[in-house]
Write a structure and sequence with these properties.
Residues 347-379 are annotated as: Disordered. The protein has 379 residues and is mainly α. It has a domain at 15-259. The chain contains 17 helices and 4 strands. Helix 2 runs parallel beside helix 9 (182-201), helix 3 packs parallel to helix 7 and helix 13 packs parallel to helix 15.
Length: 379
């Protein structure tokens, strides 16, 4: 049996199909990583490449929840903030904590971990927040749920700004070691892609999309609306928290204001442009918006064209994000790729196809799963 690369939006059939879908997502990640490695060699591009990888993880975390549940979240940056503070404080050397955070509780003051454990701490802290707040938030639907997640962002931002012994309040937390590397970012991206692909094609992901597409039918078939949304919420929070911990160990200094509306707008723009329904779309959208942002920032600084110096107005990059969102929502609301994913799928050999045509029959075709809601309702 031969395989081919295809773009599919339906559920892949059987274990091999799910493996092919995961492998396809990894292939897309590999292409992104290869391009990033080539650009990383240029000194001026190193930080941009690292930020791109972190933003890609952020958007994938956003996609895991929004793409599978249909609830637009305005609060995911709160999980990034929690992951950044938890991972940053965990990675900070004990001797620096005595100076920067002298009032830190004893258990945390003597706690110091390396790069990878710090990522897990950041992800776990964000997942715990989602687990605690999810049972209340996930009972809501539509605009009410979206506004509630925005409320979560506002609450978390204010708590971080007031928790002076833990975060230095509104002042910048500094002293976090600069541990984030190219390998660390893109290895984390690959792992998060596998996690999101596993969830999307698992029974839990099917149930979440069943509730998204046909909530009444799914609930009548015994699917728990709260539970199906909650697992997606917790997993997406974990992925977003890992991105926050990476971000903290890249910047080394940050404040609660680093995780607020501007960061939220960036994540939403990347998700919408690429297609909020798919992992491949998350990667593509992140790449497109990153390129647009960097080109416009260079124009803001001034570029020479045919001997003429051109300066764009300050802040034009955010105006471009708004224009990109309007254009995408008007002309292609599902995004560039929609819910389509890069996948490996089996293909019948050419000899079998030729024999089938000679016999007047159609060549063996790969069967696809039934629609998500229908398949899940019958489980």
């Amino acid at each position: 049996m031969m395989v081919r690369i295809a773009l599919r939006s339906d559920s892949p059939p059987g274990p091999l199909g799910r493996l092919g879908a995961t492998a396809g997502a990894l292939l897309a990640t590999g292409v992104v990583t290869l391009l990033g490695a080539l650009l990383f060699l240029a000194p001026t591009m190193a930080e941009i490449v690292l930020l791109f990888g972190i933003n890609a993880i952020l958007v994938i975390g956003f996609q895991v929840f929004v793409g599978n549940t249909g609830i637009v979240s305005f609060g995911h940056v709160a999980f990034m903030a929690v992951g950044a503070y938890a991972g940053g404080i965990a990675a900070m050397p004990v001797i620096d904590k005595e100076v920067v955070l002298p009032d830190l509780p004893g258990a945390l003051a003597g706690f110091e971990v390396g790069f990878l454990p710090a990522l897990l701490v950041g992800g776990a802290a964000a997942a715990l927040l989602a687990l605690l707040t999810g049972p209340a938030l996930m009972r809501l639907s539509g605009a009410a749920a979206s506004i509630a997640t925005l409320g979560l962002l506002i609450i978390v931002s204010n708590v971080l700004a007031q928790a002076t012994p833990l975060t230095r309040g509104p002042q910048s937390l500094f002293g976090v070691p600069e541990n984030t590397t190219f390998i660390g970012v893109y290895a984390s991206l690959a792992v998060m892609v596998v996690l999101s692909a596993w969830f999307k094609w698992s029974a839990a992901g099917l149930r979440a999309r069943a509730v998204r597409d046909q909530p009444a039918a799914a609930e009548a078939a015994g699917v728990s609306v709260l539970r199906s949304r909650l697992w997606a919420f917790v997993l997406s929070a974990f992925i977003t928290g890992v991105a926050g911990a990476l971000y903290a160990q890249l910047l080394t200094a940050f404040s609660p204001g680093s995780f607020y509306i501007p960061q939220l707008v960036l994540v939403i723009a990347m998700a919408i442009v690429g297609g909020v329904g798919g992992i491949s779309g998350a990667l593509l959208g992140t790449a497109v918006i990153t390129v647009i942002n960097e080109v416009l920032r260079k124009v803001e600084s001034g570029v020479s064209v045919a001997g003429a110096e051109i300066h764009a107005p300050s802040g034009i990059s955010f105006a471009a994000l708004g224009v990109a969102l309007i254009l995408m929502l008007r002309w292609r609301p599902s995004g560039l790729l929609g819910a389509s994913e890069v996948q490996f799928e089996p293909r019948a050999p050419a000899t079998e196809q030729g024999a089938a045509r000679a016999a007047g029959e159609e060549a063996p075709a790969v069967t696809t799963d039934r629609p998500t809601a229908e398949a899940t309702a019958e489980e």
